[in-house]
Amino acid sequence: MMIETHQRSNYTEAKLLIKEANLDVAEQFKSEIQHLVDRGHTHIIVNFENVAYVDSSFLGALVSVLKYCMSKKGDIAVAGLNKDISNLFNLIRMNKVFKVFNSLPDAFA
Amino acid sequence: MLLHKNTLIVSEDIRKEFLFNNQTASMGSLLNEMTAFLKIHLPSEAYDDKISSCKQIIIELLTNAVKHSEAENTTVSVAIGNNRIEISKSDTGRKFYLAHYSGIPPLNLPFRKEYVGGRIKIYEDDISHLYSIIHNENRIVFELLEYPIEDVNVETNLLEHYGLLILTKLSNEFFYTFDPVTGSNIFTTVVHLS
């Protein structure tokens, strides 16, 4: 498992246990999140606090699971982005595609 | 090296080559090594954002090498000077290709002269279109068009391939060159320092 899940108020935290979010782990991430959604966890915040960098393959996987989750009437947000990842999200406008939280919120509407 | 009004002045180009074995397990350590090299030569905090951009450029070039080059090794070079950072990757593997493209102009390098100036759509979704422009017989430059993002919902068409888009967006210049003499494929990114 590359994610650790915690049930929060009205959402599931999916905490990434990896440092390098790259093409080596993108498919596994997709599979684990899809499994989570299939078990009814449709509102998920992916916690990146352990992650040093993200590559385009992982970003593609993140967008893929967002689309999957939205098809189940859910949503995926991200939290705990470091400065470099946050810069990347802003630059390629992923901050308009995903809700971005600095830290885990009390609730995810 | 002098820093004057956000302009980097170097007496001569600073340049270093790094060898990548095209294994993802090596990406993290090589990224750290290359970032350290940039920080040594661009120590001012004024360059933090530029170094952040360069880190992501390096990540995407290495990812591209693993996914697409079909080569055993890749050389990644960093050059700093003339108020810019140039990062390029070179290999002798597969030429630039698009998996599902079969249109006109054909993506066969070297290009025929009649296709110079032509444009090839690489991919598109509801928020951006990425093109390659045929600059000359052996070079294409990448161009990104972005559209406003309204509400993102289940109907929104979003692509899942971001490598070339990220490289285009992070660079002031981004192009691919095929060297027919050596058979080398060279992706070059240029980041202006001011």
What does this structure look like?
The complex is a heterodimer of chains A (about 110) and B (about 190). Chain A has a single domain (about 5-100), classed as STAS domain (Transcription Regulator spoIIAA). Chain A has 4 helices and 7 strands, in the order E-E-E-H-E-E-H-E-H-H-E. Chain A has helices at about 25-40, 55-70, 85-90, 95, and strands spanning about 5, 10-15, 20, 45, 55, 75-80, 100. In chain A, a hairpin with a 4-residue loop joins strand 1 and strand 2. The N and C termini of chain A lie far apart (about 25 Å). The mean pLDDT of chain A is about 95. Chain B has a domain at about 1-90: Heat Shock Protein 90. Chain B is α+β, with helices and mostly antiparallel strands and about 190 residues long. Chain B has an 8-stranded antiparallel sheet with strand order 3-4-5-10-9-8-7-6, with helices on one face. In chain B, strands 1-2 form a two-stranded antiparallel ribbon. In chain B, strand 9 (about 175-180) and strand 10 (about 185-190) form a beta hairpin. The interface between A and B is medium-sized, with 29 and 31 residues.
What attributes characterize this protein structure?
heterodimer, A: 109 residues, alpha/beta, Transcription Regulator spoIIAA, 5-stranded mixed beta sheet, two-stranded parallel sheet, globular, B: 194 residues, alpha+beta, Heat Shock Protein 90, 8-stranded antiparallel beta sheet, two-stranded antiparallel sheet, 10 strands, 23% helix, 35% strand
CATH architecture of the domain at 2-91 in chain B: 2-Layer Sandwich
- Class of secondary structure makeup of chain A: alpha/beta
Report the biggest beta sheet of chain A as strand number plus sense, adding barrel if it closes: 5 strands, mixed
Rounded Rg of chain A: 12 Å
Most residues in contact: chain pair: A-B, 29 and 31 residues
Uncertain runs of chain A: none
CATH superfamily of the domain at 2-91 in chain B: Histidine kinase-like ATPase, C-terminal domain
Instruction: Specify the structural class of chain B.
Output: alpha+beta
Shape of chain B: globular
The portion of residues forming beta strands of chain B comes to 35-45%
Distance between the termini of chain A: 27 Å
Looking at the overall shape, the CATH architecture of chain A is: 2-Layer Sandwich
Low-confidence parts of chain B lasting 5 or more residues at pLDDT below 50?
none
Largest sheet of chain B: 8 strands, antiparallel
CATH topology of the domain at 2-91 in chain B: Heat Shock Protein 90
Radius of gyration of chain B: 18 Å
- What strand line-up does the widest sheet of chain B have? 3-4-5-10-9-8-7-6
SSE pattern of chain B? EEEHHEEEEEHEE
Mean pLDDT of chain B: 92
Number of domains of chain A: 1
